[in-house]
Amino acid sequence: MRELLYGQAINEALAEEMTRDEKVFLIGEGVQTGTFGTTTGLVNRFGPERIMDTPLSETAIAGVAVGASMMGYRPVADLMFADFMYVCADEIFLKAAQWRLIQGGTQQLPCVFMANVGGYRKLGNEHSRCPSSLVMHHPGLKLAMPSNPYDAKGLLKSAIRDNNPVVYLFHKGLLALQGEVPEEDYTVPFGVADVKREGTDVTVVATSFMVFWALAAAEGLKDKVSVEVIDPRTLEPLDLETIIRSLSKTNRLVIVDEDTSRCGFAAELIALVNEHAFDELDAPIQRVCSANYPIPGGIMEKFVLPQPEQIFAAIDKVIA
Amino acid sequence: MEFSQEDSIKLYVNLGRTRAFDQAAVRWMAEGKLLSFYHPAFGGEAPGVGGTTFLRKDDVIYPHHRGHGLPHLIGKGADPKIYMAEHCGRAQGAAHGLGGVHSEYPELGIYGGGGTIGSCFPVSVGWGVAARKNGRGQVVVCFFGDGGSNRGTFHEAANMAAVWKLPVIWVCENNGLAQYVPIESAYPLKDLVSLAPGYDMPGVVVDGQDVFAVAEAVMTAVDKAREGFGPSFIECKTARFGSHGVGNPDSVHGQPRDPSEIENLKCKDPILICRERLLEQGILTPEDVERIDQEMKEEIAETEQFINACPFPDDPSILDRALYAD
Question: B6, B36, B225, B229: which one has the fewest Cβ atoms less than 10 Å from its Cβ?
Answer without folding.
Answer: B6
